Amino acid sequence: MRIPLPLLDVVLTLVTAFAIGAVVMWISGYDPIMSYRSMLFTPLLDYTYFFSALAFSAPIVLTGLTFAVGLRAGLFNIGAEGQVYMGALGAVVAAYITKSSLALPLALFIGLTLACVWSLVPALLKIWRGVNEVITTIMMNWIAYWVVIMAVSTVFTNPLQPEESIKTPEPARLTPLVAGTDLTAAVPLSYIIALFVYIFVKYSVWGYRISISGQNPIVAKSYGIEPMRSIMLSFLIGALTAGVAGVMQVVAKPPSYSLMRNLANVYGLGFDGITAAMLGRGHPIGVAIAALFLGVLQEGARHMQIEAGTPFEFVRIIQGVIILLLAIQMLKKT
């Protein structure tokens, strides 16, 4: 049985990344065998760690979809980070407006609206002026970061706990499905969204138009497909998934159910999504599997610190090497 080439590339990338990580650990004076055993096997053998890994993977699934749908349209959309911030801000605004159960649907409405509005700037600049989306999405990410930092530090700060925002009211919270874990309804929701996105890009007319426009805009025009519409739609779909991730990190993140002043519970999720999308080869189901793998890594890293004494930052080194190797592969194919 022959292994598909894309899967073989991913496996070789992971093996190389872990090998480089092991060398760095050894040079730094840490035991790579004990570290990897703690990192990779503990989350799979202990249900508490595994459910926490699932919870960590949920927002990465959603931000990974943002990048993956962009790739389908021929875009390098790295704006999920800023759109996650705006989604989280929407949840905080909803908690400020009402203390009832209406805060949950209101959080989704405001959060998704803000995320979509935030994506319109790079989308319109791309469509009207041909501005590279990498530049504009990076710009919008940083603007979103400081806007949300300012909002959480002033208007929406929690007077009882100044290090965080106003808390989501109890009736609107998504509480853990399993006691003692972070597993909430946000986890199955994220994977269901990934399934819907897969069905959309695989079987819908607009999914076909996005794919054709991304592969060859000239051919798309000859078939009567307008590439600019596909670009706009891909940006909006990506904003919706990233916005949901931001909202869920506030309304479904025990025990605080708030947004930290330094954005600790949302920071970096957009960039983790890029890793998941590249590992998953831009396929929505592949993104979900890759996000779960990254969740296991992140949760296992916490146990690695306790059992092996190895710093958490080594996981970031491994992720960075994975992105670098996958980017090199993409460059070779272009």
What is the fold's blueprint, element by element?
Layout (H helix, E strand, L loop, with lengths): L4 H23 L4 H9 L1 H4 L1 H26 L7 H18 L5 H27 L3 H21 L32 H18 L1 H11 L1 H6 L4 H25 L17 H11 L4 H24 L5 H21 L1
Brief overview, please?
This protein is an all-alpha fold and 334 residues long.
Structure description:
The longest helix is centred in the middle third of the chain and has 27 residues, at 103-129. This protein is mainly α and 334 residues long. It has helices at 5-27, 32-40, 42-45, 47-72, 80-97, 103-129, 133-153, 186-203, 205-215, 217-222, 227-251, 269-279, 284-307, 313-333. The chain has a domain at 67-267. Helices cover 73% and strands 0% of the residues. The chain is built from 14 helices and no strands. GO terms for molecular function: transmembrane transporter activity.
Task: Give me some keywords for this one.
14 helices; 73% helix; globular; mainly alpha; 0% strand; 334 residues
Shape: globular
Helicity range of the residues? over 70%
Distance between the termini: 28 Å
What integer value in Å does the Rg equal?
Answer: 20 Å
Residue stretches low in confidence (pLDDT < 50, at least 5 long) are none
Number of strands: 0
Keywords: Cell membrane, Membrane, Transmembrane, Transmembrane helix
GO molecular function: transmembrane transporter activity
Pfam family, one: BPD_transp_2
Subcellular location: Cell membrane
